[in-house]
Amino acid sequence: MKKLKKLAAMLIAGSVLLAGCGTKPEGSSTSGEPEVAAESNTASEETKSEGGLKGELVYWSMWNQTEPQGMVIEEAINDFMEKNPEVKVEINWNGREIRKTLQPALDNGQTIDIWDEDLERVLKNWGNYALKLDDYLKKDYPTTNGKPYEESVMGSLLELARYYKIDGVYAVPYQPFVFTFMYNKDHFAKAGIEAPPKTWDEFTAACEKLKTAGFVPLTTDDAYVDTLIGYHLARAKGYKWVEELVKDKTNTLWDDPAVMEMAKSYEELAAKGYFSPTVGANKWPAGQQDVANGTVSMYLNGTWLVNEIMGTTGPDFPWGTFAYPTVNGGTDDLTAANYGAQAFQINKDTKYPDAAFALLAHLTTGEWDKTLAEKSFGVPVGSATDWPVQLAEAKDLFGSLKTCYPWAAGIQADTDKLPVIASNFTKLISGQLSAEAFVAEMKK
């Protein structure tokens, strides 16, 4: 989303809202499924029985009331109050201004029981105000089909929440995203590509087939051009090395063979005409509109793209997704990506923690998780929830994730260097610079 990419550029992170996340801490599961604690999963009667909860909750929302997410959440909350008549929920529609308004309100002791925003942001900025939720994760709720909450949602996201706050879980993720190649499945089928590429050699072979079939294989624009170089270098050396590269004031790391290999790879793509001829001048949202109009086949972006350009594509666009390919001799595989979510938090000082978490369970599992995914054409967080057909191919990818890249895989770690990287890489992929000239420019 435009919101995501702008915030990422400013904060070196990313919403709709992204950001820096890294390899999971030791001891966390890497299977994509949550580790289940060997403790009792029996919920209290208050939590298990609809109608047994009491309280007056104040929820500050990151959404506007007229957004698809806001409309679904409001409807879901009304449904929760009907099923729990002794619980009242007041919604304060903050929109993205919550990033500015929440902290002062919390510091002034204003009554706010629940809030939401980007997963990384809520944990890093407001984690000290939040309730630790581990005990609630082990309980079952009316929408979890007798299972503990932690077994009813996407395990990789709970692990990511644990990563940001090592001593436990202080947020409930929802509306997940992953940054990946979004592509036109009809183009692939007409080009005779039987399966999405997994390696760089397969990727270049797919580009050739697409071009032969009359399609423009690739595009990008000024908002996302840096993600291509970031991902490629991270596949080769890991995202922490990418961050070291851009922070290296001596510029000696740009002599690493992995940089020249990356530059040669993209020089080849440009030379063979695999990029859109407008790529050198594309301003956002030009790239994604070319995909929406069916003139370009592939675009490295987030799964939010489906919803973002739905007005152009309509719901029947043949969306596909695949992870950035591995590179020869690289260190990272397809299980590494920039991924995350929005997230709810509960105030540690709330008078009604049971009611608050029961509400979050109601919003993030079962009927309302499904409805939110459908209305926003997004990814559900519930493990049993049907996925929108447009993102069906992303389901296996989410289940395999083990390493979370920061936004653009670390290439934005130095804001002073970023414009130089983006400008020269754009020249490289548009055929204005050779690989050698690109590296020379980066060392200046």
Outline the secondary-structure elements.
Elements: H1 2-11, H2 45-48, E1 55-61, H3 68-83, E2 87-93, H4 98-107, E3 114-118, H5 119-126, H6 134-137, H7 155-164, E4 172-184, H8 185-190, H9 200-212, E5 216-219, H10 225-237, H11 239-247, H12 257-271, H13 286-292, E6 296-302, H14 305-308, H15 310-313, E7 319-322, E8 336-337, E9 339-346, H16 353-364, H17 367-376, H18 394-400, E10 403-404, H19 418-429, H20 435-442
Parallel strand pairs: 1-2, 1-3, 5-6, 8-10
Antiparallel strand pairs: 3-9, 4-6, 4-7, 4-9
- Give the C-alpha Rg: 22 Å
Give the end-to-end Cα distance, rounded to a whole number of Å: 33 Å
Q: Which whole number gives the mean pLDDT?
A: 88
Amount of beta strand: 5-15%
Derived structural class: alpha/beta
